[in-house]
Amino acid sequence: MKIESDxxxxxxxxxxNITIGSxxxxxxxxxxxKIDKLPDVTRPRPGHADxxxxxxxxxxxxxxxxxxxxxxxxxxxxxxxxxxxxxLANFEINVLGYVKSIxxxxxxxxxxxxxxxxxxxxxxKVYCLDKAAESKMxxxxxxxxxxxxxxxxxxxxIAFGVxxxxxxxxxxxxxxxxxLAGALMSIQAIKGVEIGLGFGFSKKFGSQVHDEIFYCExxxxxxxxxNNAGGIEGGITNGEVLIARAAMKPIPTLMKPLRSVDIVTKxxxxxxxxxxxxCAVPAVSVVGESVVAFEIARCFMEKFGGDSLGEVxxxxxxxxxxxxxxx
Length: 327
Description:
alpha+beta, Chorismate synthase, AroC fold, 5-stranded antiparallel sheet, 34% helix, flavoprotein, Chorismate_synthase_CS
């Protein structure tokens, strides 16, 4: 929402720009909070939590549902993810999110250098790496706004520098691809997630898609010439770049609303309209980046954690030295 400011206050856990070991508490002010005097909302929007939430909790005013279901909740996840990215940067792990498509218009440009991705993304109004696609995306967003409609799209999250060995194959809830899929699917309006080649695997022979393994004598490391797995095999990172994508549906609030039913009168009506964006795909790329960074940081700390950054660094360096000669 453009009415909100990107301002975070740190209430605890950080002193003189360093964490001190106690719980970290952030405070984010929200201007759009005075709802008690607003009229009841009884016309649920198709595609939103309005109706199922009202049924579940027995509410006759779906505002009790829609406010908590709002994507404003993701501001806290972005704040937490920002802290995770600072931690990961100490170990040269860089997580970046950007837009791959909006409304069926696809970005065809590929950049493999994280610094160049960062620069290209931040120059774009829609966080897209492809300038030609960007202009078409903006035009389509303008048309959707004029038509009282909304647009979805696809985001891509890439994590550079992730070591082999995060996640585990030994239990279903420890598989990192499952963890990342759950984190991304928990973002409002995300309806699909894939890792690496994703759904493309279903169209190929195994001989065409599995990343062959090589060994570099000079560096003493295993490597691949392809990365269809997206950096994860068997729920464990394999040392390649981690790649995840998420598909976002169009926002369900439409200025030209769809048909609905008043939950009190049970009469046919147009769905309610609330203040809303036309396209939130660029914003969700920031959220996706943050939740992926948070989960990678969590797995990283589970494996290498200690009581200080120095201890974590020693654990990590020891692992890297050991993993080079473990086989």
